[in-house]
Amino acid sequence: MPDRYFNNGWFGRHPSAYEIASVFIAPLRRYAARIAGRSPGRIIDIATGTGANALKLAQLGHSVVGIDLDQEMLAKAHKKRRSHLDLDFMHGDGTALPFNDDTFDAATISFAMHDVPPEIGVGILREARRVVRPKGRIHIIDYNDLGSGFGARLLYRVARFYETPNYFGFVRGGVARYLEAAGLTVDRKRHFLGAVQFLSAV
Length: 202
Hints:
Blueprint: H1 10-13, H2 15-22, H3 26-35, E1 42-46, H4 52-59, E2 63-68, H5 71-78, E3 87-91, E4 104-110, H6 118-131, E5 132-143, H7 150-159, H8 166-173, H9 176-181, E6 186-192, E7 196-201
Parallel strand pairs: 1-2, 1-4, 2-3, 4-5
Antiparallel strand pairs: 5-7, 6-7
């Protein structure tokens, strides 16, 4: 996946600020981490960024691999590794994951889908589906679409000043079209203040 497709926006250039902003969605990350598996499993965190989501999953006892294209973000992620956690980070392309089919019990994708064009987003989901075992779930945290209510429209007024151009098409069309194109079906959904959503798909 060419570098132009990952977040070269404001947060992409300021990983430390990205970490601070992540605090505000921590409740949704905790919820997603719990849903990702009641018993320990092997999970891939695609577009892991600074590793906040991967860390939470590892703290719950999962074996986690976080993968991302952004080396500066990964440098922050590597600092989260602890000897007692089964947690690793690697540089890689979400549309061409270096793993065999059916390797993981689940996949997580947190605030990545809105950064890429639809065809790349669909490619990421198809790869996630390939490396996740049958009946394993793909969990997504991202912006809600604008039609979801006041919270989504309010966040849009702020996010449009720092997000990449791909963001605008994403929030206007929603993630459902990506999932449908990748052959996935939503089986669980939750909102956070109407602005951010968690989806679980199979």
